[in-house]
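User: quick one
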Amino acid sequence: MSSGKKFWGYRRPNGQVGVRNHVLILPTITCATQAAKQITELVQGTVSFIHQHGCAQVGVDYDQTFRTYVGMGANPNVYGVVVLGLGCETHQARSVAGEIAKTGKPVEVVSIQDHNGTLGAIAEGSRIAVKMVQDASAQMKELCDLRELIIGTECGGSDACSGLSANPAVGVVSDMLVNHGGTAILAETTELIGAEHLLAQRAVDDRTAKRVYEVIGAMENRAIMMGVDIRTGNPSPGNIKGGLSSLEEKSLGASNKSGSSPLQEVIDYAQVPSKKGLVWMDTPGHDIEQLTGMVAGGAQIVLFTTGRGTPTGSPIAPVIKIATNTGIFERMGDNIDLNAGTIIEGIESIESVGQHIFDEIELVASGKLTKAEILKQYDFGIWRIGPTF
Amino acid sequence: MSTAFKTVMMKPNDKVAVALEGIPAGSHVKVTCQGHSFDVELKEKIEFGHKFAVKSISKGEDILKYGEVIGSATTKIDIGEHVHIHNLEGKRGRGDKVE
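Assistant: Done. Structure below.
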């Protein structure tokens, strides 16, 4: 442990490493979310999440939701999965389970209609979960290298300090992780509108640079097709109160989270990176949808900077919250783990705060709980890209 | 009045600086950036995290911060004025401007 570059993690059958050992009760349809929640109340060591999706979806929208479910189950922080369906939905539990099973981890399917209703499904799901939790608890941790980490980066509830303190500090961490051979995800395409030229310049090849402009263009066109000023939704009223005047200004601050490493690839929402280093995931700026996309893409830990203060967390990945200013750190210390406001006050350098965050990653990867985990902040939201039918 | 108020200006070609504490109207502020220095008399109170002009900006002119365009001026902005959504508009994602 003295090298400073290792952590204690859980090795999965496919070789990936988790920083947690959750048993996930994964409802593939909104109709099964309440039963899933009941199982988590009965069985210690299980987690789940509430959502509104999984039926009457088609085409690319169906695919994206499907990929998100599979990604949540496949994330290496998950030891095993009970996939809970209703039975008649478009997103069939059996299909989702089949994809997750390719990781080699334990996966079982329970359907409410096949088990004579909610109570039967809860009983069956709980029985399976009890065994999985006990098996999970018997798994020994092993010493793992930081290059096995995928770290998601995110800013939410931004203020004018975000681009001056916490985001540049996360940029330092992103570079440090990349230098250690790990993977850092930059996301929230909306909040890179106006800064895309800076990222495109760092792309490793023309194809990646072209993809940068494609995903930015597609996101911007969604606002244009709606006939609205994107500023009516982003920056948000809180961002504006904090001093941010335009989406471009917010974006130029947000892009600092990417540090200075070359951009290796641009990937789809909830897609697992195919390369190490800095990657860009195409997600909206919506905090929870972005977080879910990155975690479904395999991020074991997320760094989340906030100026206005947010409670955001994931059911399966620790989210390390970093305040952009000392005032919000003091007011919302129950939710926020670290303070980068010392940069604004001239007490600490950006590099020094970056080192603190990097140290915290090592601790959290080895088991230290984040505030969002302690408060059971199990957020989940899928970026829907088509209508429900 | 004091010139010790904390501010930050990111790049020398920026037209705005950010107040790192609330600064009262009428304050004289010395803004420095990479060897450049600007003496600014604030025309109005600037809240923590908000921007003020360090150079005069014409109507329609691009406004720079981080050395990059963050929008354009909807009116003439004098040195020391608050720069925010009342006089700066974004140029991107403007579906409302499509004919």
